[in-house]
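Following up on my earlier thread - several people asked me to post the actual chain instead of describing it. Fair enough. Here it is, all 307 residues.
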Amino acid sequence: MPYLVADDLPTAPAGERFRALLARGGIVQMPGAHNGLAALQARQAGFEALYLSGGAMSASMGLPDLGVITVDDVSFFIRQVSRAGLPVLVDGDTGYGEALNVMHMVRSFEDAGAAAVHIEDQLLPKKCGHLNDKKLADARDMAAKVAAARKARRHLFIIARTDAAASEGMDGAVARAKLYLEAGADAIFPEALTSAEMFRTFAQRMPDVPLLANMTEFGRTPFFTADEFQAMGYRMVIWPVSAMRVGAKAQEELYAAIRRDGGTQRQVDRMLTRTELYATIGYHDYEALDASIVKTVVPPGMPQRAA
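Reply from S.P.:
Thanks for posting it. Predicted structure:
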């Protein structure tokens, strides 16, 4: 049953629920969910937290992941995804500007329902962390953004992402991570590490710090499982664009089939049935809720006019 109509609506702030998941131990697994339906399907599969990727949001809007979407764009996606009732970690890119912009972002994301955000130390136009020629911000400027986020947040869990490993090496990435922790970050996200040895080394040099790993496809990181990341010292893992990629490939094949076959007759077995879709979105639960609170009231007869 969707949380919008359920009796067990979450009452604790989303950031507190995210912290509670981390405090349980193990590794928090967060698949990317780029819209409300994907969020419901991920919850249905048994996940307890979700990730909202800037790359997935941008691509679903037909735009490149170059930092061109806005705080309001992202807040629209957060409201959809958070309706599933699970804590959502949101990609905050570079914070949409400097310190005041970061503070605005934090409050906007909290109001929309986010549980956590990560901010990265790139300069605009930012790129996917697994691409080349990324330009890094001065570490002190990034630390100021982290401090601003910390000052603005009420419950939001703040993760500082560093893209420094590719250009400044492990020493540079670790130094930046320590500075961001001093500025108030709750956790660190070392992006685009390229081997198990790098993941282990970073974790060993950041003891007792919650770390986030990114298991994106077609990037610089080899395939690792959640259990393997946990063994290397990581507390969170995301699969940021996987669901959108699978869905987009299916759409591409559907459109090609309609063009080729003149209809969808050869694609029906690849679709959710109407019954399956309605069950996922809770169609009948909404109907029942509507029937329980909306009752037609028949007006009394027209008052008689006095003689």
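Residues 256 and 262 are 10 Å apart (CA to CA). That should answer part of your original question.
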